């Protein structure tokens, strides 16, 4: 077995451990017998209710949202050839959140109803960031793109916060989601999210070989018969669908989509056939473990995943911005 295969196997173990902890740990600790009974022999007891209607949907949402964020970050960094690219630094998460909050105020309450607006908002935000980051003589640079993304994200977050704070009912219903949380997950939402996530994953997988070619540079890609423009367009679709789905499930969770691809490349090299699945697994594990940590750090209260993920990803992002390698790109 090659080194990347061993790393991928280790990531699978990490996700499995995160899944088990997510099912067992919380305000109501569960024994192995209670967990087994709740999953296989549901009788309507308190422990069974916690397993089937609280822990299971929360864990599934974490797995789907984390995987989508990891894949979105890998594709975003691949098509832009920008190590600072990601669904949050490109404004996709904030754009999706802002547009979904806007339609929620109009009474749309189901994921299947508002996720389409999330896709549109994420795409518009990403295009705005790219346009701003590409202005000036130097064109698009990693640092300019990161700064443009930070500015657009801050503006959209401020607008979202203003809308929610002015509507008491909306604030009461979605304050957990806006921060970034899995606390109000349910199986119906999981079922609605699966088709969207599957489409995004499929597009990302189709792009694996093209991402390796695009990484060689635009001229080299054209000489090899690739079409960089088509790859970037398809990549943007994948990023918007994946990040929009993750945002609809867990809110605008930041830095996960940025950090996971860097960790994957550090562990398995630069070939996207390894980086893409490894990023998805690492991001899923990170989301689950961050959610578990948020449940126990100030128990019985919770720290939402948007906070715990930012505490991990923020310092990594600052390190990436400061490195000479990034500045020289």
What does this structure look like?
With 329 residues, the chain is mostly helical. The protein has one domain (55-180, 190-243, 256-327): ABC transporter involved in vitamin B12 uptake, BtuC (Orthogonal Bundle). The protein contains 15 helices and no strands. Helix 2 crosses helix 3, helix 4 (92-104) crosses helix 5 (111-133) and helix 5 (111-133) crosses helix 11 (228-250). The longest helix has 35 residues, at 46-80. 47% of the residues are buried.
Largest sheet: none
Averaged pLDDT: 83
Secondary structural class: mainly alpha
Give the helix tally. 15
- Total separate domains: 1
Brief digest:
Belongs to the binding-protein-dependent transport system permease family. FecCD subfamily. The protein is mainly alpha-helical.
Characteristic terms for this protein:
membrane; 77% helix; single chain; transmembrane; transport; mainly alpha; globular; ABC_BtuC-like; ABC transporter involved in vitamin B12 uptake, BtuC
What is the secondary structure topology, with strand pairs?
Blueprint: H1 3-24, H2 32-40, H3 46-80, H4 92-104, H5 111-133, H6 142-165, H7 168-179, H8 187-206, H9 208-214, H10 218-223, H11 228-250, H12 256-268, H13 272-296, H14 305-322, H15 324-327
Helix pairs in contact: 1-3, 1-13, 2-3, 3-8, 3-11, 3-12, 3-13, 4-5, 4-6, 4-11, 5-6, 5-11, 8-11, 12-13, 13-14
